[in-house]
Amino acid sequence: MSVTPMMAQYLEIKDAHKDALLFYRMGDFYEMFFDDAVAAAEALDIALTKRGKHDGADIPMCGVPVHAAEGYLLTLIRKGFRVGVCEQLESPAEAKKRGSKSVVKRDVVRIVTPGTLTEETLLEARKHNFLAAFSVVRDESALAWADMSTGSVQVMSLPQTRLGAELARLSPAELIVSEANAQDLRYLEEDFGIALTDLPRSAFDSTAAETRLKDVYSVQSLDAFGQFSRAEVAALGAVVSYIDLTQKGNLPLLLPPKQEAQNRTVQIDAATRRNLELTQSMSGGRAGSLLSVIDMTATAPGARLLEQRLSSPSRDHDLIADRLDGVSYFVNHTALAEDLRSALRAVPDLERAISRLSLDRGGPRDLGAVRKALEQAGALSQLLAAQDDLPKSVSDPLTDLQGREHILDQLDEMLVAELPLHVRDGGFIAPGAHEELDEARTLRDEGRSVIASMQQKYQSLTDVSSLKIKHNNVLGYFVETTATHAERMMSAPLSDTFIHRQTTANQVRFTTVELSDLEARIQSAGDQAQGIEKALFEELRHLVVSMAAELHQTSRALAALDVLVALANLATRENWTRPIVDDSRSFDIVAGRHPVVEASLKRQSGDEFIANSCDLGGDGDAASIWLLTGPNMSGKSTFLRQNALIAILAQIGSYVPAERAHIGSVSQIFSRVGASDDLARGRSTFMVEMVETAAILNQSDDRALVILDEIGRGTSTYDGLSIAWATLEHLHDVNRCRALFATHYHELTVLAGKLDGVKNATVAVKEWEGDVIFLHEVREGSADRSYGVQVAKLAGLPKSVIARARTVLDALEKGSREGKANPSTIIDDLPLFSVAPSAAPTDASETSPVVELLEEIQPDDLSPRDALDLIYKLKAASKA
């Protein structure tokens, strides 16, 4: 069977975009055919129908409305699809001029991928959407990343062994790699939830990339932006080429690339980020993370900047001090800070509005966002300019808030207050802003009143009060009346005036020469007004895009102030303190608290968090390690994590949850906390533990902060003990770092007497009538045992199991004291298979007369006299 012209066009376009679902524009719908339709119908849960035949078989078809397409696009992108948006490039009327059977011209105007989203509805407002590219040129490698929605572009050299850590930091939506090493990097898709896109090797050619970058930035040399390696140039070129490919040559505004150095930020690997839950909790959501607790920013760019700083704590002590000065200033000027927060709450997302306008995907509301952002920038500028002794981190942004008045004045003069979403909606240019537009609008709008007068005239002429003048897109303006009155209007003398147009089931429609002339004038005026508004929109759009660099500076300044004010508000509300951050080896935290756990306690029960101190300050370059013992559930892991989080908060320039904190330079943070397996890659829980421990021992330098929890617990007791012992010695003798080492191997506590940099610490507990009470206090010394049986009892294990565990534990401890090294010889002496197992011991609390009295009491029924009598009874019962 022959293929229809339309289907032939579809197949030709689809053949050029085989790796993407094709959204083929058909009037008010995007339609999909063949395998695309089957896949999309299943992914979107929409009806799968059919249209025509191909090779004798029905053609599967499904479609989505154009006006709701963004929601469907988001679903498809999240499910791993790429989508080619195929638009109509001319109207049906234009197509008919080439012949009655001509097909409307169509082509793909954009490939939608996870890393190239710009629409507001498709993006998370408070999170970057990075597109990254990893390149390898000979023995060099580099990572470049860009956010199309904001225009930021960055690059750094890094070995492939560091790629996972940087991807964990950036969380890009999509990673571009060369087809030459795509297979080796395929695991990144699952490990980091990144869409991996492989391109031909030519896309990573550094010579072609350099030429491409020079063209994009209109420069003769890239030296003005930095001294880039060949690998860095290749990675940047791949990012720009991919954006050009997916946007079909319509490049967005890209800011000059910034070179990032590894040694300027604290190095945190993927496992540590996961364990510390910096920006995401273990469950994968934002709730429960450190970011969720500290983010009090009022703007989307401010939230993105805070996440960026939290993901990349600084090692530049001058920069940290400047940030802390800014936070301190607003802590000490709370009224000013609140005024600034009020102004910041009204600031729209300027960066993303500029990006949409540069791609010609913006509308009047994006121009309105620029206007509103500049208005609020002016208000903030006035508030700050009136202050004295502004710190550098506040005065620098103030400079970038000023000098944009000419753009604001023009936007304010041209735009109405309430703006429509689309240019086609019209009505966004203010009255009086353009004389020719006002004239066209007047004619268009007055034409409507003339129509109303003409309707009254025709009602009088025909003596038909129900006669109406109506309009539709097919007939234009027409006179409508019922069939009953139509006969008179089609008879002389009225037939000379009213010309029959159409008869429907219940109505008859006419036109007149006078009505046709008026319609032509009104239509012309409406089209003229719409054309003028479109032209004025383009002028304003080009104005904004031409000033994009300055506007981006304003946006960054607003975000920087937002972060400072938000951190000051956090510090005031939560009673946090300013840390000392310097280049020393100090690590002295007094009464530190875990920010996330503390917030959770306040929210759920109102209980206070038990603060604990930690001093890892060593002598010179010697190691400083706390060996922490104590039972499970006592708070060891919380203590470990809180000190790492306090160090990170200090180095992003934030106040910290402590009474006092002195943090010497931390170059790396490593965490091995918790148990998990990696079955997909054939790794057991113990193997994962050992891989992560190996990374720590192989990479930690003497300025690292290491927290380790229960090393060696995934294997046999003696194997685990020996591994933990050797690991602790290596940290002390070779890495010479600061570390917190939690363990249940009490045998390790003897190392405090053998290694100068090791100190014993324990989490205090109290036993009461066979139960353990957690005090959550970290003290000097070591635990005498792990209280595992007591914790098991709290967990609800059957009483018979608890009793049996106590019997076995007593026998093992006795055998150990008597020098019996083999546990099997001790267990052999126990009645392991006795027919009648001994009953579980009865707790003393079950027969206590005091408890019996308390159980009978109804507190709400007690009078003051009854309560006093009860006290005497309880005292007597306690002596019984």
From TrEMBL:
Residues 704-720 form the DNA mismatch repair proteins mutS family domain. PROSITE patterns: DNA_MISMATCH_REPAIR_2. GO terms for cellular component: cytosol. GO terms for biological process: mismatch repair. InterPro entries: DNA_mismatch_repair_MutS, DNA_mismatch_repair_MutS-lik_N, DNA_mismatch_repair_MutS/MSH, DNA_mismatch_repair_MutS_C, DNA_mismatch_repair_MutS_clamp, DNA_mismatch_repair_MutS_core, DNA_mismatch_repair_MutS_N, DNA_mismatch_repair_MutS_sf. Keywords: ATP-binding, DNA damage, DNA repair, DNA-binding, Nucleotide-binding. It comes from the Bacteria. GO terms for molecular function: ATP binding; ATP-dependent DNA damage sensor activity; damaged DNA binding; mismatched DNA binding. ATP binds at residues 630-637. This protein is involved in the repair of mismatches in DNA. It is possible that it carries out the mismatch recognition step. This protein has a weak ATPase activity. Belongs to the DNA mismatch repair MutS family. This is DNA mismatch repair protein MutS. The lineage of its organism: Bacteria, Pseudomonadati, Pseudomonadota, Alphaproteobacteria, Rhodobacterales.
